[in-house]
Design goal:
globular, six-stranded mixed beta sheet, binds adenosine-5'-diphosphate, alpha/beta, ATP hydrolysis activity
């Protein structure tokens, strides 16, 4: 079975208007799925539910056949640290740490020794062409470089799913294209699936399949190729 992650009938309200109103999404192993739709349509909330960051009011999320809601908090946190990687619009790197320490962080949190974690971190930074920035702080590198560092950090644990929420949103189109190519190539190399939230058609074009969210509901886009 190549189904990896399934969200179904997801509902979530923060106020009177539901953010998710019966949304669903299925992601296959190694598949890159773009989640598109206008601002405020519920894309980020859908991503957060699928990643076990936000608990839906109703509906289910299963990862590799496991129901996230049935897991203990500890196990869900371990899943997020190990099987999931995250890239956000603003890299969310820790400003006090060097770039290599940032990339090594998920491994360090998982108990890997510093030397081994940083060696692995530098390997990933080399693939993303930012290994020469290892000693710099995030504040000392450009936006495009910081986003490559963030991608290295998301991939260093070789996650099963990378959740990317507007990963190019803060970049110009040249850097955005480069970051997307590196993200997609890295995911293909490791066999990771990607859930890519974007409102830009040009970014969604890197995906295998597009889904549109409107008013908290999802629908599949039929691709004409
Ligand atoms: P998108 O990612 O498509 O822009 P979001 O999922 O961020 O949409 O938001 C969907 C709706 O839910 C919006 O109306 C937004 O204001 C609301 N919302 C999202 N997260 C929260 C939150 N933590 N608290 C209150 N309202 C929220
Ligand atoms: P952390 O370990 O970072 O504190 P948790 O895994 O405890 O995060 O999740 C935060 C909150 O959301 C907890 O109350 C948790 O029970 C709840 N939660 C998160 N994802 C889900 C989910 N898919 N189904 C049910 N509850 C969830």
């Amino acid at each position: 079975d190549d189904t990896l992650l399934v969200g179904s009938e997801l509902r979530k309200s923060f106020g009177p208007t539901p953010a998710l109103d019966g949304a669903g999404l299925m992601v296959r192993r190694g598949e890159i799925v773009a989640v598109m739709g206008p601002s405020g349509s519920g894309k980020s909330t859908l991503l957060h539910c699928l990643a076990g960051i936000v608990a839906p009011d109703s509906g289910t999320v299963t990862f590799d056949g496991q129901d996230l809601a049935a897991m203990r908090d500890r196990d869900r946190s371990a899943l997020r640290r190990g099987a999931f990687g995250f890239v956000f619009q603003f890299g969310q790197l820790v400003p006090e740490l060097s770039c290599v320490e940032n990339v090594a962080l998920p491994m360090r949190l998982g108990g890997t020794r510093r030397k081994q974690a940083e060696a692995k971190a530098l390997e990933w930074m080399a693939r993303l062409e930012v290994d020469h920035l290892g000693g710099k702080r995030p504040g000392e590198v450009s936006g495009g470089q910081a986003q490559r560092v963030a991608i290295a950090r998301a991939l260093v644990t070789e996650p099963k799913v990378v959740f990317a929420d507007e990963p190019t949103g803060a970049l110009d189109s040249f850097n955005g294209e480069q970051v997307m190519r590196l993200l997609v190539d890295s995911a293909r190399e490791t066999g990771a699936s990607v859930v890519l939230v974007t409102h830009e058609a040009r970014v969604a074009a890197y995906s295998d399949r597009e889904v549109v969210v409107r008013d908290g509901r999802t629908r599949q886009v039929e691709l004409v190729s």
